[in-house]
Write a structure and sequence with these properties.
The protein is mainly alpha-helical. The chain has one domain. It contains eight helices and no strands. Helix 3 crosses helix 4 (98-121), helix 4 packs antiparallel against helix 8 and helix 7 runs antiparallel to helix 8.
């Protein structure tokens, strides 16, 4: 090695420290969500919005048309814009190279896919399906795997909240080059997920644990995408630039 030239592995300690910190955050969030489950807070909170006659806000126009249908369409529009942004970046996406933009788009799609896959395998029914709230099902924990509660199932985790939480992965892509923007992006995605999940809670469509698990799952998918992207980026930088029509960047 030529004297005075930087050593290529020098970034490895910082990489390890960053992802060790993210691992601790991931485990901390997991512990908080498990604590909510263990505390059995779902039913008491659902009772604040529903009764034996059902959930009065179930068909309320703003919750249905704006926070449900409208937000769902907006979420898919943002996914489309992220995908197109790999080639035609706008706004904050211009701060990223093609690999970073591809990471943002893929992390959102993979988070949505992960939530959808778990949801389709779940036998857990929605609050409005429970006999306590005017339905026919009996309550069963979403951890009671294989237990049929007598309802329609497929209600865990909260798919609608993923229209906000799925974009948490953008934080991981942005934090390398635009840390301030990354924090704002993260705050917006978390707030959107909580608002959308809360709206469904009021309608009786989900328990709070469903929303919290969706948030943790989307965060974890985003982090794992960042791990993979960080490992592959040096090898794929030239390929991603070529796909996006950008000139290759010098290593380091």
């Amino acid at each position: 090695m030529v004297r005075g030239m930087p050593s290529m592995p020098s970034s490895r300690p910082r990489f390890a420290v960053q992802h060790r910190t993210l691992l601790l955050w991931t485990l901390g969030i997991l512990a908080a969500v498990v604590a909510w489950d263990a505390g059995g807070q779902d039913i008491p909170l659902a009772r604040a919005f529903g009764s034996a006659s059902g959930f009065p806000m179930r068909e309320q126009w703003f919750f249905v048309q704006v926070l449900h249908e409208g937000a769902r369409r907006l979420g898919w529009l943002l996914v489309l814009l992220l995908a197109l942004g790999v080639w035609w970046p706008l706004g904050v996406l211009r701060r990223l190279d093609a690999g970073g933009r591809l990471q943002m788009a893929l992390s959102a799609l993979l988070a949505l896919a992960a939530v959808s896959m778990v949801k389709n395998l779940s036998t857990t029914s929605c609050p409005w399906d429970l006999a306590e709230f005017g339905g026919v099902a009996r309550y069963a924990s979403h951890w009671a795997l294989g237990v049929i509660d007598g309802g329609g199932g497929r209600c865990f985790p909260a798919g609608h909240a993923s229209a906000g939480f799925a974009f948490v992965g953008g934080y991981f892509a942005l934090r390398h080059n635009a840390p301030a923007a990354a924090r704002w992006w993260l705050a917006a995605a978390v707030l959107a997920g909580l608002v959308l999940g809360g709206a469904q809670q009021v309608r009786g469509a989900h328990f709070m644990s469903h929303t919290l698990w969706t948030g943790w799952l989307c965060w974890t998918v985003g982090w794992l995408c960042d791990l993979g992207a960080s490992a592959l980026r040096p090898r794929l930088a030239g390929l991603s630039a070529a796909v996006a029509g950008e000139p290759p960047r010098a290593a380091g």
